[in-house]
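Teaching soon. Invent one.


***
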Amino acid sequence: MYAFEYTRAGTVAEAASKIGGGKFLAGGQSLVGAMKLRLAQPGNLVDLAGVKELVGICMDGNDVVVGAMTRHADVAGNADVQRACPALAELAGGIGDRQVRAMGTIGGSLANSDPAACYPAAVLGLGATVVTHKRRIAADDFFKGMYETALEEGELITSVRFPSVMKAAYIKFVNPASRFALVGVFVAQTAGGVRVAVTGAAGCVFRVKDLEAALSKSFTADAAKAVKLSADGLSGDLHATPEYRAHLIPVLTARAVEAASKR
């Protein structure tokens, strides 16, 4: 590690005033590891662990509102989330391992925007809204690229608003070592139409319009399986080729549709 300034904030206002050009520390599951490897070298860390207003889950009308510092395990076990959007609870319960779920936060995951993270698929798939201390950002406008979001320097996520959903499910093909998604697909039937969000297959989470169009006509596994996707722009690595990921996306979409239809 290296020398840096450390501040433990007590409120959102204090955290925003202390950040300067530094980084917010949420659960630390990604940032601390990156700092150890010198992939990130902030000169100032503002710890959010003491900011109680960022923690918790509540219902606001039909929306589920999740505070940015709410742990994955708490999202998975929350009765309101399980009732209003069981797919979100199941997704949170499948992130990483027990230690990651006990420490990692939804705000930290979204701000980091790992290409294979699970939460971005839920946020984009459900058409959620990311709320910061400055503004509200629609999911379709939030994710910009690999580890890149619409957040401005010093902008702090305070909560995420998930709208009501008719049917939804998340299925991921797991890397057995990291537990990240080799490919993960979140499918949702919402008031605004069908949304299909894919993580693990490119530089950041993205929607698949061809699958959305097919499922809008027929919300069935067969409709998803019939869609053939190009491998252009998809990631290739030692775990899977772009072509393999292109094949997996409709397959996992079909499984997600089957799971959603059983609810």
Remarks:
- The first helix runs from residue 12 to 18.
- The mean pLDDT is 95.
- Residues 61 and 74 are 21 Å apart (CA to CA).
